[in-house]
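Chapter summary example: a protein plus zinc ion.
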Amino acid sequence: MHRLYLILRAFNVGSSCALLVLLMAAFALAFVFMFIYPLASLILVFLGLGGLWGSAILRKLASIVQLRVARSLLSQGLCPNCGNSRSDNIEHACQTCEARFESGGIMIVDTDPDDGMNSSVPEL
Ligand SMILES: [Zn+2]
């Protein structure tokens, strides 16, 4: 189950870059088609807009499923990041991989390890 969490997290992190590359490729293709067959450029514009909406919905669904999987694993006493059982403490901190999670399933990212405080960054 933690592999599903890792796949969803990788999808949520990497899908923005993949979408940017895909839309830039579509823009380049539409630019070339503008001189050859203008109707194809128009079709690519609407495909790009539809793809943008579709990917926004898909990313929102993936982040919801990711949080649900993380909450399920945390309630079973497992670390969503490495899959090992963690000690039962309030902060959901893993002894093996030192990943920390909020009770809602959001991974806590320590942006500045020296300040002694944690900041939670939602992965959307
Ligand atoms: Zn862990």
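Key point: Residues 79, 81-82, 84, 94, 96-97, 99 surround zinc ion (CB under 6 Å).
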